[in-house]
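Before going further, learn to read the protein records used in this course. Taken together, the tokens spell out the fold as the letters spell out the chain. A record is reproduced here so that you can trace the correspondence yourselves:

***
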Amino acid sequence: MLGKIALEEAFALPRFAEKTKWWAGMFATDTEKHTAEINDVGPIRLDFAEKYGVGLQILSYTAPGVQDIWDAKDAQALAVEINDYIAEKVKAHPDRFAAFATLSMHDPQEAATELRRCVTQHGFLGALVNDTQRAGPDGDEMIFYDNAKWDVFWSTCEELDVPLYLHPRNPTGTIYEKLWADRKWLIGPPLSFAQGVSLHVLGMVTNGVFDRHPKLQVILGHLGEHIPFDMWRINHWFEDRKKVLGLGETCKRTIREYFADNLWITTSGHFSTTTLNFCLAEVGADRILFSIDYPFETFEDACDWFDNAEMSNTNRLKIGRENAKKLFKLGAYKDSEA
């Protein structure tokens, strides 16, 4: 399929190349290749896109990114630097690249202001945030965005009519020491990423974020961070147990309704037809988006799988690009051959 739109595609700042290489050593089998690919916003990505039929890549700063910086002033300065950097790169290839804003999430008003700047001045299509924001004097505190303090930020997302991609980050501090240090191979895609993001977004559901902001759109990668597979059980306990005990005061609708109206999932890093078919049954084709998770995953694996997975042509077109065109209002998007 030509003209696919991919939206969990990471980049890094070249000035952090040595740190990027060190970080890649924890998960990449070829650190030199990974560092070259994640620092490139040009020929390497464009060549892959041409070969594998990707028309538009929505770029975002690599995890853990600004969410790993617990000094609020430093985090904000880096977010602005990243946003201005990628804005210039996108300008060079506006028909092939777009961007999500990078945000410091120490302060909701500051995050809202930077999001507005990125959308109105740079034309960014939303924001990507790497789960909770590290905070506190030693970085051991975590800021969640699922309480009323963050309504000013969520209201800005609604007003600008742009989504937020809630992406994982690695566990840190005492959480790492208590839960993950003795089972480190479970950090990342095997378990910790899904655990962190699913806790956060279900906190948003149960704490009434989507009831207060009914137009808010939030994207979850990796086919929903395990949530679709527990949909029946979550719905059963919310509706038949927890709401009887008081959950209904803050969570007005069912989990299925929030997925129908507020939540999206992507195929990033999860190239299983069996799993996709399960998500089609639980979530529906209208709420699923194609993505790669490059360069942590490859264009080849993602695109060869998606282009050849057994599904209807209607669903392939929806997931591959049509849903993204609607969500991001890409009316001028031209690369649309089937």
